[in-house]
Amino acid sequence: MAAQFRSYVWDPALIVAQMVLLQAGYYSSLGLWLALLGTLGSTGPSLQQVFSDERLLDEIVYKFMPVLNIKISFSCRYVIQKQNALGLLYFIRRGKQCLDFTITVHFFHLLGCWIYNSRFPSTLTWWLVHIVCTALMAAIGEYLCMRIELREIPLNSAPKSNV
Length: 163
Fold this sequence. Notes:
The chain is an all-alpha fold. Helix content is 70%, strand content 0%. It has six helices and no strands. It has helices at residues 12-41, 47-51, 58-64, 69-91, 95-117, 124-149. α1 packs parallel to α3, α1 packs antiparallel against α4 (69-91) and α4 runs parallel beside α6. The longest helix is centred in the first third of the chain and has 30 residues, at 12-41. It is elongated and about 70 Å long. The model has no long low-confidence stretch (mean pLDDT 78).
């Protein structure tokens, strides 16, 4: 039987390792930006800022720039999702799997919020922000992975000779 181009072998250990790496990247980038904004607003990062559905990123921003609250909040979330899309590029490298891993990361975050708050997230703001973030991470990750996948494949590495 002939070998297929890019044949996919199901490897559960690899999939779990990729999920753990993406989840760690998600929380480390979120923690980094919360710590940076916390120094500007003179508050430290806390688990409540990460997992509470009532305190997204807004309270930190309210303390030092109430006028630009929404712009700064969404731009920080955009930067975080861009960093996570780079994680998709380096750890997943397949455009078809970006949506799956993105939804998995945000689903585990939903479970973490549910466990931390002892109730299901119910605020409209939380759902809107996370739906937009999921779409951004998946779209940017797929775009970056597709750019890598669509590169030309060199067929002949030997130099051309004039015949």
